[in-house]
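Extended Data, panel c. Modelled sequence:
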Amino acid sequence: MSNIAGRVREVFRGDQRVDADALIARLDAVRRFLTAVDGLLPDGDLVPAHTLVERAGTRLALSRDHTVVALAGATGSGKSSLFNALARLELSPVGVRRPTTGVTHACVWGPLEGANHLLDWIGVLPRHRFVRESALDADDETALHGLILLDLPDFDSVQRSHRLEVDRLLGLVDQVVWVVDPQKYADRVIHDSYLREFHRHRDVTVVVLNQADRLSPAEVPRVLDDLRRLLDTDGLTGVPLLATTAVDPAGMVGLRDTMERTVAERQAALRRLAGDVDTVVADLDQLVGSARPAGGPDDTAVNGLNRALAGAAGVPAVTEAVEWAYRHRAGAATGWPVVRGWRRLRPDPLRRLHLPGPPGDQSDPAESLVAATSVPDPTAAQRSALGLAIRAVADRAAADLPAAWPGAVTSAARSRLGDLPDALDHTIAGTDLGLDRRPVWWRAVGGVQWLVTIAAVVGLGWLVLGYALRVLGLPALDNPMVGAVPLPTALLLGGLLAGLLVAALTRPVVRWAARRARARAEQRLTARVAQVGDEYVLTPVRIVLGSYAQARDALRDAARR
């Protein structure tokens, strides 16, 4: 048994008083528990707790000055005779041929007006309500003012409606007086189906052996001892056990004294509700236990989730496109100016994925208004890996929780699975891939390429001009010499060779820089994808874990007496 269950000890309160404020605090804790687990645990497991909160609030609001005591028993036990004997009036009909009580009768000591709302809630029809108030009584009945005594139908009646009515009323009354007779006091029905179920309500339970006049004086103690043994077996140790007989006023003294003490204490309703709280808390304990939840899944599960999300989001395809885009853009910026225009005719790799193109590219401005990409859809293997990663996150987070919670954690982890594809796509589209600015060295290399290209063009133009003058028979200019090579030729060949050399030297640098750009983009994309995973998978899991912690704390508070 957990620590919480251990605190709900089945202690017979006896003369201990139940503090109303403390009881209300316990009920509020049960209400906080229900709020915390709303939508997370099966509704069927929470019905008793919901019923308790609603019933307790209504009972305390209706009246704290009345005590509702029910006489419950089997057919022929003499309940109605006891009811009439306590009231000292013939109020409830006593069967002759086949003793049976078909409807509930109520007797109110004191004004009926003050008890009507409570009787309406209990469900006693107005024609079956009686008032024990007479001028002839003087002060004989004053000690019982505030008592509402109910004569319930027989719980073993052949009429199913009678049994259902008994079960309903037993959940509403403040105290129960179980009436048994010498012939059927050991009947399994009353012990297995009723008395044993009331072991947490011992402090509002009284058992009477009625019709004790049918036993000899020597038999009464033996029957009472045997009945006490059965009650101890039922978990009702310490409950009052009395012998009564309705035909002799002396045989009613003990029960009447018990009723007067119950009415004077004004504790029966509080003790009954406190027992109901004990019962509900003990039943709910198996749903919560004593495990202290983790703050969330461990790093291994989170890293696995991030890898799976990156795969499903197409991060590898995007980072590869980033590398090739870097090469493409670097080549366009640092290549030979003569072929740059031809290179620009080739589509940018990122543009194929509807990702940001080169700086200043306005080829499709409408795309900037739609955060969507053309990244390939995840494969079946990637979707499967993502599902397994989400399941691993849920399993790790719920590893130490009671059996009722792993399903709730798994449902929370998968609750926004349908929104993940769009979220990942928007994240990829909105991530800065680090290619917005042109590096300075691109401009430097590009400037060198322009210089050597201009030199080659000047040399070529010089040579063409000289050739044209010779063809026209005009005197040609003497070409300056660079060593043994004419200057125009040196400019042409030098410009071409220098452009090729710069391109050859730049190519490995571009490849190295492209790999760095890919790694940088991968780091940024992974971080953004991890944020999506945190929002769409981890946060719902943490909310459930937080709800579990709140429920555990609330139930611990509800268990405190």
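The beta strands are 67-73, 105-108, 129-131, 147-151, 175-180, 205-209, 241-243, 481-482, 485-486. This feature is highlighted in the accompanying rendering.
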